[in-house]
Amino acid sequence: MRLLAAAGAFDGVGFLGEHLVLGWLMLELTDSAFMVGAALGIRMAPAFFLGAVAGALADIVDRRLAMILINGPLAATAAIAGALYHFDVLEAWHLFVLAAVGGSMPPLKMTLQQSYVADVVGLPNLLNGIAFLNIGTRGGGFVGSFLLGFVLERLGADYAYFTMASTYLMTAGILVFTRGPADAEGGGDRPPRAPRAAGLAGALGEVAGNVARLAAELRRNRLLLTLAITTMIIEFAGFSHFSLYPSLARDVLGVGPQELGYMNAARSLGGVLAVVVVAAIGVQSRRGLSYMATILVFGLGVVLLAFIGNFWLALVAIAVVCGMASLQDVYSQSMMLTIVPSELRGRAAGAWVVATGTGPLGSLQIGALASSTTIAFALGANGAVLVVLAVLGLAFLPNLRRL
Question: How many whole angstroms separate alpha carbon 370 and alpha carbon 42?
Answer without folding.
Answer: 18
